[in-house]
Write a structure and sequence with these properties.
Layout lengths: L1 H7 L11 H9 L4 H11 L1 E3 H8 L4 H13 L3 E6 L5 E6 L1 H4 L2 H14 L1
Antiparallel strand pairs: 1-3, 2-3
């Protein structure tokens, strides 16, 4: 196992953001993005305030920024309904749903190793 780890580790000087691992981290890294993905997966469709309540410790501004980044990366879908007051719902895109097995493996690993 040790030789596999050494053989598969990144040599010095490798640009981590240019790797698949680095790219994935750039999409879901940070304090709140994984929590947002979790709540979207659990609820299928969720509104901003409900998401804010579920996360609890996130500010409105931070949640707004995180949602905009996830939408720009095609991880979530933002659906706006033209009514008064405005209604906006968020859901996982197909690309976002493809991250769920990765998150499931993280949960599995955490349960086995805590």
């Amino acid at each position: 196992m040790r030789s596999e780890t050494v053989k598969n580790s990144l040599p010095s000087g490798v640009d981590l953001p240019a790797t698949g691992f680095g790219y994935t981290l750039s999409l879901i890294g940070g304090k709140y993005k994984i929590l947002i993905l979790y709540w979207l997966y659990e609820n299928k469709v969720i509104r901003f305030n409900e998401l804010k309540r579920n996360i609890g410790t996130i500010s409105f501004k931070t949640l707004s920024v995180m949602l905009k980044e996830l939408e720009a990366d095609d991880i979530i879908i933002r659906t706006e309904y033209p009514q008064i007051p405005p209604k906006v719902e968020y859901s996982l895109s197909e690309r976002g749903r493809s991250l769920i097995p990765v998150l499931d493996m993280m949960c599995y690993w955490g349960e086995k190793n805590r």
